[in-house]
């Protein structure tokens, strides 16, 4: 199946209808990301240990439509958490999804919560 | 008594001096500049100024007109708001054309038939686009490109086209500066651009044919189609344009046409009142900007000065300055005899600039030309026969040095001995050998639009405390015109800050205020163990994709740790120990030291590649690459390869790639020594070492050099009596031959020298700098390096030897480590919550193998 950008739409915490159990904390590398599957979606989940924060976004890079963002490097720019695509280093804000070093479409972001040892990602359906 | 008396007389004479009226015809860029400059003078109190503008709005920035396509924001282009004119007691009447001048009565008549009297008349009526008399130019869909109204009409028409068809086409008639700008503009409007030029090349006035070719290639890559050497006979279409006819069945279908074929001065007023005119138009002026009638001035694109019309703002602004001075009786300010016509294209995406005499026959001077077609680069400078003065030049693809070269030309600065370094540069491609903007004289005009000198910029920083380019721009107006001088102003600000002791450091990124070499020393001296500790102790914030891999490289160089330990600070390729490919799959490259591979190994590789359905290819580095492995397959493939005796080839790392060999004396009839054995030995010695950039070696059995050892970071060539050792070579984008470090030495000595060279490089090079670029920048170059490596001039040879030996002794195959460690193996799954694989990956077949499906 070839990925479609319209599959991904940002969700805010207030909008969450389903908290999907993504996996145990230890499966997500410290200061790095991993990919989960939810229905027909691929979601990149980041464990930003240094900030004590978790972030989630679509795994699909809007530049060349490849499912790779979870394998990118996270970091921050002007206090904004971001993800750099491993293919051509497009960077996106993990908060707003906005493309920070170009004019690509913003990526969709999703809320994450951690309860005990379990990581949950929030979806609307 | 007497004094008071005189004083009274003087005062009364001043008072009685009547207010004089200046009428300015035309409120364009130059007309406005005249008002601005006059308003800044205290003498302006003595004048009443009335300005007539035919356009419906106050003067705007025509130079940046194309920005209107992006935002349709006419306000943003405004040079000054309407209030400004009122505040400065200038009466601006827009939407009103002057139709007649009556020199006898010193009056003008307006379109609405009103009459005004002047003492001084300033004609700043500019020019209009030249529309060639081609059959059909009156058709709907044919536009010119000069005013905001022109652009609005174009935008509306483009919308109409787009509502009718998906892929509309627009042609631009004229491949000059403006035409190319228009080409980009119609492309941004969503139309397919076609630039049609009558001359055989683009920008015929500014470029020679070679640079024009390079430009054409770059434009075509951007999606701008170029048709040069085409004369348009007819515009086709019934009512509205549908195409262009070039004769002999040669036509181009288009939905819209923008004419950009040059300008014609709007000199009609001068003609009707019998001022002296140029043969081909333009109102003749002297160096005071006076026309043949001394109370009438002409400035800007309508003025014919030195028998030329200057279609640029900078000369226009200078004319405005001169006219103001003449009117306020500062008679000494006159126009320069030579007008600089240098230009820089402000097209987004391509750098194009030319200055002075861009090209000329050989008897006038000598040319130095640098061309790199793959990168779309062309640079040319023309130098006087004695090699001392710069006469002009061209740059396409990279005009970073335009400002400095342009200044050298304008200020007649003597050239350095190696003039070629001005364009090929000691700093590598795109750099230049010319020290810094600070070497220019204080009088050098840096911003020609606003005539700001270097002295003024530096003063603004040093004396007035403006410490950023923004602040300096605000204070001096430099960079606010065409913006071409921005890089140079930035340099001057930086250098001026330095003289104040405020260094602007070249830091790695916002998280570390250090250079790579400083950070290297910090990690080593403080024994810092990981990235988090490094950030906590000497950095700030939480890191980014620039400092993380850099720190990873430093940790690897100091502790020889593999990429597996701190995997999330590695570049993605290092993190997964494989090179990511265009569809998110990976390549697998086992080490084949020296390129020597046995039939058994070949068969093993063939079997594994077949099993996992991998595309295979011989690489340029004498080994075999297997492509198309999915993330989860990597440990499985490597497990099998390791079982067959292979180890990682580190094709993904900033580390040793390959040591290329020729077959050497073992088989070759000319071989002087065993090059394969040496290559294998040295490849195994350096394998796994992480460095600022990748590095490669080569060993040739004789000077025929079949292994291309001199194209590598280090190379050995067997000669009568030993080995010649070369360092600092490079293929790639900017090829450079390695330099001779030592001659006819034995193998052991050769290895020691290269050990030290490599270690010295690893410790001191900036990030992502190959040995070639590093050596080029190393002060003292190869001579200095020889001293360090051979004569131990820094007294560090022992340390370098020991550090290298430690690397050699602690080598581990990181793929072996990965497949044997369950926690590391776990990293190789596409989903952590499902065993499914990525269904977004698609392959298509290719010559009995496969390849990724093309990107849309
Ligand atoms: C596979 C190979 C092409 C091939 O099919 O032959 C190749 C492939 C890549 N080269 Fe290369 N280069 C390959 C031989 C070369 C050579 C030839 C050689 O080594 O003799 C050169 C010129 C020699 C040199 O480096 O001086 C070469 C000069 C480059 C450069 C330019 C380096 C430079 O300093 O200018 C890059 C870009 C870079 O490293 O920044 C590059 C980068 C790359 C990358 C890593 C680009 C990327 O980031 O994806 C390619 C991916 C490798 C992979 O496995 O996925 N490759 N590349 C060759 C692998 C050799 C090997 O066995 O490891
Ligand atoms: C798209 C574009 C890009 C450009 N890019 C550059 C660049 O990068 N660098 C550069 O140096 N130059 C550039 N130029 C050229 C630059 O804009 C002109 O050199 C400059 O505008 C000339 O100023 P001017 O005042 O002489 O003429 P104009 O700006 O044309 O002003 C003349 C004004 O007089 C008015 N007028 C004419 N006749 C009458 C009359 N009888 N009564 C009343 N009003 C009258 C006109 O309507 C007009 O408003 C560019 C031009 C265009 C169109
Ligand atoms: S370099 Fe010399 S030894 Fe090597 S193949 Fe060529 S001729 Fe033979
Ligand atoms: S695919 Fe992500 S930056 Fe190119």
UniProtKB/TrEMBL annotation, chain A:
CDD domains: Rieske_NirD. Residues 20-121 form the Rieske domain. Coiled coil: none annotated. InterPro entries: NasD-like, Rieske-like_NirD, Rieske_2Fe-2S, Rieske_2Fe-2S_sf. It comes from the Bacteria. Signal peptide: none annotated. This is Nitrite reductase (NADH) small subunit. It comes from Zobellia uliginosa. The lineage of its organism: Bacteria, Pseudomonadati, Bacteroidota, Flavobacteriia, Flavobacteriales.
From TrEMBL, chain B:
Its cofactor is [2Fe-2S] cluster; siroheme; FAD; [4Fe-4S] cluster. Residues 342-406 form the NADH-rubredoxin oxidoreductase C-terminal domain. Residues 445-495 form the BFD-like [2Fe-2S]-binding domain. Keywords: 2Fe-2S, 4Fe-4S, FAD, Flavoprotein, Heme, Iron, Iron-sulfur, Metal-binding, Nitrate assimilation, Oxidoreductase. It comes from the Bacteria. It holds the Pfam family Fer2_BFD. It comes from Zobellia uliginosa. Belongs to the nitrite and sulfite reductase 4Fe-4S domain family. Pathway: Nitrogen metabolism; nitrate reduction (assimilation). Residues 581-642 form the Nitrite/Sulfite reductase ferredoxin-like domain. The keyword Iron-sulfur applies. This is Nitrite reductase (NADH) large subunit.
